[in-house]
Write a structure and sequence with these properties.
Oligomer: single chain
Number of strands: 7
Order of helices and strands: HEEEEEHEEHHHH
Radius of gyration: 17 Å
Structural class: alpha+beta
Number of helices: 6
Strand content: 5-15%
Shape: globular
Largest sheet: 3 strands, antiparallel
Bound molecules: zinc ion
Number of domains: 2
Strand order of the largest sheet: 3-4-5
Helix content: 25-40%
Length: 164
């Protein structure tokens, strides 16, 4: 899906909605996308009606605007990957493998700053207790500054499995 550079116009609500579609994994794993896909690439329809490639949005959130004549590529060769640490600006000639370790490292740092933060053990305990007590997951997501998906994972024990 290559084409002329597309300016991203996203509201805060768009970004929140988009982040809920990202299925977070471990920092070095590929993260998948639960929204619609075209030819394996995640696609997000913004409130202005424009469809953007998911990886372009992730790249922009983590690294800022894509330089001219560059394309968002993934070091993992997984079209649907949503882990900003696996995405970099490449040109059409690049072969998609890890070609710039430094950029990759910077991407990891940038992703950690922008994408939903990680919860602490105490927060996880408290979230489980509060959801059991009837507090809405969406409310907790807002309070803890994480995605609703993240809360759901915690509550259903798909993450933090070992925590009693
Ligand atoms: Zn990946």
């Amino acid at each position: 899906m290559r084409g002329p550079p597309q300016e991203l116009i996203l509201t805060d609500d768009d970004i929140a909605e988009f982040q809920n579609l990202i299925v977070e994994g471990a920092p070095d794993e590929c993260w998948s996308y639960s929204g619609p896909k075209m030819q394996g690439y995640g696609v997000f329809r913004a409130s202005n009606g424009v469809r953007y490639q998911a990886r372009k949005i992730i790249y922009a959130i983590a690294h800022g605007d894509l330089p001219p004549k560059k394309f968002v590529r993934s070091s993992c060769n997984n079209r649907g990957c949503c882990n900003a640490a696996h995405l970099y600006a490449g040109d059409t000639a690049s072969n998609g493998r890890l070609r710039d370790a430094r950029r990759h490292h910077d991407a990891v740092l940038a992703a950690a700053k922008v994408l939903p933060r990680k919860l602490t053990e105490n927060e996880v305990r408290s979230i489980r207790v509060r959801v059991a007590g009837g507090v809405l997951q969406a409310e907790l997501a807002k309070e803890y500054g994480v995605t609703r998906y993240c809360i759901e994972q915690v509550v259903s024990r798909r993450t933090w499995k070992d925590l009693p």
